[in-house]
# Entry
Amino acid sequence: MERFLADDSGSLREKVILLDFGGQYSMLIARRVREAGVYCELLPYDTPWEKIRDYNPAGIILSGSPASVYQQEAPRCDPAVYEKGVPILGICYGMHLLAGDLGGEVKKGSRSEFGRTTFTIDQPEPLFQNSSFREENYCCGWMSHQDEVLQPPPGFNVLARTENNTVAAIGDHQRKIYGLQFHPEVFHTPGGNDVLKNFLFAICKCSRTWTPRSFIEDAVAKIRKMVKGKEKVVCALSGGVDSSVVAFLLDKAVGERAVFIFVDHGLLRLDEAEEVVQLYREKLQGQFIHIDAKNRFLRRLNGVTDPEEKRRIIGNEFIAVFKENALSMGDIAYLAQGTIYPDVIESGSAYGSAVIKSHHNVGGLPAELGFELVEPLRELFKDEVRLVGSELGLPASILKRQPFPGPGLAVRIIGAVSAEKLMLLQKADAIFRQEINNAGLSGELWQFFAVLTDVNVVGVKGDDRHYGPVIALRAVVSEDAMTADWARLPHDLLEKVSARITGEIPAVARVVYDITSKPPATIEWE
Ligand code: XMP
# Structure
């Protein structure tokens, strides 16, 4: 099956290759390089030189790793990478590896230089030049590895040392090969970005060619090259950022030859489906098909209480509805999907990265649909998707949309789902979101939503005893949803939300606020 690959455009965009040895910051390094305006692609550490060469890299970065170069099974790169004249920057393990491979000596150091460490610079040019990182040749870097370089390889100089005389940076100016003991990409290394930029611009001689606009031009050209003549491409819309950006790109590239299908499973937030439909109808030139499948999904979910079973049913039903509609159109050859870069690299090819995130995304469509895939966002990180979306003119309501699970409110109604419960939750959730927005707090939160629990409790309404459900409010701060902290929302705000929910939705007996972080909890309740 033909894929929309990051590298098949023939574009002149410069690339830096990051060989990933499984370091915890590999993804962050790639993002930092891209933020500097240079396209960076992660490849598995053992990628053969012949494949790396095809990328025509302007530079190669060797990442960190939990491994030690002493280990018998230590991950190694193709030694040819050192011999081709391409500038190299080894970070942490990457430095130990290149130092050992090129004839230097690496030893196990003491644990005394973990975390933030100061060091002095012997040779500022070119890696440390003009760096805000330096103050009178003193600087501060974040170290996280016990191994260290005892003796640099022949041809290398020590560029910087710590107070304990540990080698903090080495370089061979002739061969343009450099190594850093510390991590320039992390927040704890102030000015570390300048070091990365010196590598990119002073050493690799890159220019800033990676911008949202250049990405859009390339992506549109690639889509046109792929979807030719009278061929048509279909795209499943969910109202989320990724599928919306794909839709706008397709629309720009092939206009009326794009068919957009919005499967409305009825599990979106209050009024969301209508907003999405209106936006797409207004902005897209391609054919837009809105399928109201709410009743069909509710029927399938009737009486189902197990969360994973709900997810499975919704996922399968989504595929069934999409398939019926897409196949009935007859003349469609391509399917566009919003796969993004973390999805691509999370398939785990780096050393030690055996853990693969379990995907419970409803929009994922199976290969057997028989379409060829167009995946224009395969090379983008999430924040880059937003930048591209903004350049394409997507409204803030879509770009700033908080993450929303594919199975929607079905996993926020604990236990069986029904039309009545859906309506009740939609109302409570809308009140909570409205008050958060009014308080100007939405930008500070990762997600905020209401959950309809399956607990009924006693309350008093007017003079009467009332027996009804508990609504839980959940608001979290997070960087990436892997971990999350419960948000310290102002008590006045919580009080107002509680009063409005119990006042405006008579059935609700009680409102509680979830004060559990992730871990041990998850963000969603199911
Ligand atoms: P948890 O609940 O695992 O959620 O802490 C982490 C992030 O993933 C979202 N989430 C989902 N997204 N389908 C999705 O597309 C799902 O089934 C699903 N479950 C959780 C959740 O909203 C949070 O952002």
About this structure: The pocket of xanthosine-5'-monophosphate is lined by residues 311, 360-361, 403, 405-407, 447, 481, 518, 522-524 (CB under 6 Å). The mean pLDDT is 90. Residues 212-399 form a domain with the Rossmann fold fold (CATH 3.40.50.620).
